[in-house]
Design a protein that fits this description.
Elements (H helix, E strand, L loop, with lengths): L6 H7 L10 H10 L1 H34 L1 H4 L2 E3 L2 E2 H44 L1
Antiparallel strand pairs: 1-2
Helix pairs in contact: 2-5, 3-5
Length: 127
């Protein structure tokens, strides 16, 4: 059984001792603890949580109207196309719109920071 001594304590006990090399696990933990990574997670949450709530409410509206407002949902708009069919198709449209919006959001707010973190991590592991 070995006792792991933190590098700073070991360095203080033996000034000639070199710090342990950065292992991938240490590097990943350092990245996870960084302010940059916290900002990246915050940026992701800023999009994901509101969009999830909005889509869930939109879907719940569709289900509730289908269950309790049959007269409204059965209204014919053009020919045999009724409100329920339009709302159902709009569910697909909104899904693709959210995917498109996330792609744009990620390109502007998430990917640049993620690429910088990855580059810094790769540069640290190459040393």
């Amino acid at each position: 059984m070995t006792t792991d001594v933190p590098d700073s304590a070991a360095q203080a006990a033996d000034p000639d001792r070199q710090p342990a090399p950065a292992t991938p696990a240490r590097s990943y933990i350092a990245v996870q603890d960084s302010a940059e990574f916290a900002g990246l997670r915050r940026a992701l949450r800023r999009f994901i949580f509101p969009m999830t709530v909005a889509f869930f409410l939109w879907y719940a509206l569709y289900v509730l109207l289908s269950a309790y407002a049959r007269g409204f949902m059965g209204l014919k708009i053009i020919g045999n196309i009724n409100v329920a069919l339009v709302f159902g198709l709009l569910q697909f449209v909104s899904t693709f719109a959210i995917a498109w919006a996330y792609s744009r959001y990620a390109d502007r707010n998430i990917d640049p920071t993620a690429e910088k973190i990855k580059a810094d991590l790769d540069a640290g592991e190459a040393k």
